[in-house]
Amino acid sequence: MSMSRRYFLKNSGIALASLGALTHSPSFLTRALGQTPGGRRKVLVTIFQRGAADGLNVVVPYGEQAYYDLRPSLAIPRPQEGAAGAAPSCIDLDGFFGLHPALAPLKPLYDARQMAVVHAAGSPDSTRSHFDAQDYMESGTPGVKSTADGWLNRYLASKADPQATAFRAVAMGPTLPRVLQGRAPSLAINNLNEFAIRGGGQAAGAVQSGFEALYAQSVNDALRGTGRETFEAVKLLKQVNPAQHKPAPGANYPRGRFGDSLRQIAQLVKSDIGLEVAFTDIGGWDTHANQGAAQGQLALRLAEFGQGIAALYTDLGDRAGDVLILTMTEFGRTAKENGNRGTDHGHAGCMFVLGGEVKGGQVYGRWPGLKGGQLHEGRDLALTTDFRDIFAELAKGHLGARNLGPIFPGYQINPANFKGLIRA
User: Fold this and answer.
1) 323-329 and 98-99 as β-strands: parallel, antiparallel, unpaired?
2) Rounded to whole angstroms, how far apart are CA atoms 109 and 115?
3) What H or E segment, with its residue span, contains residue 119?
4) What's the whole-model pTM score?
5) Angle, helix 257-270 to helix 297-316, in steps of 10 degrees
6) Buried b (16+ CB within 10 A) or exposed e, 83-112
7) Quick one: which of 300, 296, 265 has its CA closest to 280?
8) Residue 252: is it exposed, middle or buried by C-beta count within 10 angstroms (0-12/13-18/19+)?
9) Which helix or strand (DSSP H or E) is residue 351 part of?
10) What is the distance between the alpha carbons of residues 40 and 320, in angstroms, rounded to a whole number?
11) How does residue 234 score in pLDDT terms, banded at 50, 70 and 90?
12) pLDDT 10s digits, 143-182
């Protein structure tokens, strides 16, 4: 064939760099890539709310008057104020905290004790830079910019799995996120239906054959191995055919990239393709102006977020006992609303943990309060739970990690700081 390798790279449906193997010796072939899929296993699904979600309006501390004093136009009304004709109110959780009304689809999971909240949680680093804070949360080393890999990738590297397939770690998106970068192989897939060598009709086979031939002739061992591993991954996905798994009744995913990503994660779980770690994200949380209270900009974002997670949980069905869903955001927002009826970059926020193993129906974490002397730097919700303690607890209790030290370098993991999120 006269086509160049550059042409194939540019026009194929595969991002080879996303395999995380271009700078390493081939490894998928020694990890049983070509075997039958890896069967049922524990799965961690991580969802990053990029842009810094306002935790104080996501899970509302309606039992504290200071919240209402600080937010005259943005505060969500207390549950008992939701009378006919009044603005929608927060949904009571425990007599002090309430869910934003747009998150109503998640309340049944909380009531069923399969969803927990960790409030006043996040990074101990005080940066207000989105880029730095996201980097710190994904690397698992707050304040350290030189970390070369992500904490989930270090987990994968720390736990050898001879039955692992190419789909052990998958990020739904066009590029591999920071959290999955490192020496352990990981995949970035924008769309399962596009994870193939593109070519119309009968030409598809010829295109793939030509692509494989070019990589087989490569003088670079790593590049040749990467190409071979890529084709094996494509063949495995075709063999399993995740698209055959349609959403379960009642699993109504929202339209758009977020809903599509969650739907395809469910397909990978139900395909028994060896998925252990999945990642996706959802943006639009940087609400500096016109944030809205029970209705408005934030409410629309939360509606998509809540509907998507509820649909994923419903779709998993009896697999929910094997899956744990974790949400995170780089930092929270200021306790006091600004002059544009929005909120600025803050400090601590809140995280959701869902799954059949979760000891739910509770809001975890020590509440620091919102009065002047209790605020971080006089303006933000103070941090009482380091995100690494949450990550470590789930890595150990759900995924079975034994040695947490290499996963969180520079941090002394103390099980006494674990919240008890996983049922014994």
Assistant:
1) unpaired
2) 5
3) strand 115-122
4) 0.87
5) 10
6) eeeeebbbbbbeeebbbbbbbbbbbebbee
7) 265
8) middle
9) strand 349-355
10) 12
11) confident
12) 999 999 999 999 999 998 888 999 999 999 999 999 999 9
Give the C-alpha distances (Å, rounded to integers) separating 342 from 3, 68, 121, 294: 54, 14, 21, 13
- H/E segment holding residue 134: helix 130-139
Task: Give the contacts of 282 (CB within 8 A, at least 6 positions apart).
Answer: 47, 48, 49, 50, 258, 301, 304, 305, 308
Token pair for 45: 């699904």
Location of structure tokens 């395809």: 264
Type and span of the H or E element at 124: none
Q: How many CB atoms lie within 10 A of CB 213?
A: 11
Q: 351-385 in b/e burial notation, b at 16+ Cβ within 10 A?
A: bbbbbbbbbbbbbbbebbbbeeeebbeeebbbbeb
> From CA 26, how far away is CA 220, in angstroms rounded?
11
Which sequence spans correspond to the domains of the chain?
5-417
Query: What would the two tokens of residue 346 be?
Result: 């803050």
As a whole number of Å, the CA-based R_g of the chain is 22
The pLDDT > 90 percentage for the chain reads 76
The token duo for 309 is: 């997670």
150 near 180, Cβ under 8 Å?
yes
pLDDT digits over 21-69, tens only?
Answer: 333 333 433 343 334 455 678 999 999 999 999 999 999 999 999 999 9
Q: Tell me the per-residue pLDDT of 240-287, one tens digit each, with 9 for 90 and over.
A: 999 999 999 999 999 999 999 999 999 999 999 999 999 999 999 999
**Distance (Å, rounded) from C-alpha 57 to C-alpha 97?**
10
Kindly report the three-state secondary structure assignment for every residue of 29-73.
HHHCCCCCCCCCCCEEEEEEECCCCCHHHHEECCCCHHHHHHCCC
Name the residue type at position 202. Answer: Q
Phi/psi-derived region of residue 181, left when phi > 0, alpha when psi is between -120 and 50, beta in every other case: beta
Structure tokens at 417: 């700081």
Q: Looking at 177-299, which runs of residues are DSSP E strands? A: 187-189, 277-282
**How does strand 349-355 pair with strand 385-386?**
unpaired
Beta bridge partners of 134: none
- Helix (H) or strand (E) run with residue 145 in it: none
What are the residues whose beta carbons fall under 8 Å from the beta carbon of 399, sequence distance 6 or more? 42, 44, 155, 159, 276
| C-alpha span between 385 and 271 (Å, rounded) | 36
List of residues 6+ apart from 242 with CB closer than 8 A:
192, 264, 267, 268, 270, 271, 273
